[in-house]
Amino acid sequence: MPPGEKHNHSVNFFEEQFQTQVAGQQFALNPFETLAIRYLRGDVMDLGCGLGNLSLEAGRRGHHVVAVDASPTAVSRIRAAATREGIPVQAIQADIEQLTIDRSYDTIVAIGLLMFFRRQTAMILLERIQEQVKPGGRAIVNVLIEGTTYMGMFDRDNYCLFQPNELERRFAGWRILESRNDTFPAPEGIRKDFSTVIAEKPQ
Question: pLDDT of 115-151, one tens digit each?
């Protein structure tokens, strides 16, 4: 989920969605989380983790996870589930734009996050992610790309759509484990076009 004060529309959009999902106990992994789960290794940071479905599944599989989101509903749900199940998942409520990633991780995940920032900020965040992945570790990044017409969740001045092959170019020098584009229909004839890259950092 996107960060705080400058992203009020996006934050409210997801907060309402998360409250509905919690009430309905709707916690299934989405297709990108299902893809990501088999590529996780070691300690994991999950940025913009939403309701924590990936983070909690990673914790069940023995990964130590730091899950970060701006939504109080999401963070509360993750903390309660992690405590109930006794799994090593720490949930942090934070404005990711202001977040300092203060140590390195074996895997850093940013699924459906970077497009909620202005382009310059998104690129800075991507660089931070790349810097804080340990050598031999992995980055799992998923964004909306040009062609997307599903725009209702964005703040007017705080988003960017990536170019179709931009993520892969920005991981030049890394070993690309997965690179794919996917399109999903949305209501009223609009669509969501995604790019996903899973890359391994050189040793």
Answer: 999 999 999 999 999 999 999 999 999 999 999 999 9
> Nearest-CA neighbor of 46 among 9, 80, 74, 15?
74
CA distance 25 to 178: 31
For range 85-109, the mean pLDDT: 95
Cα–Cα distance measured from residue 105 to residue 109, given in angstroms and rounded to the nearest whole number? 10
58/75 Cα distance (integer angstroms): 16
All structural domains of the chain: 5-200 (3.40.50.150)
Q: How many CB atoms lie within 10 A of CB 144?
A: 22
Q: Are 18 and 50 in contact (CB under 8 A)?
A: yes
**CA distances in angstroms from 106 to 22, 72, 172, 191, listed in the order given:** 30, 26, 19, 33
Structure tokens at 153: 């969740």
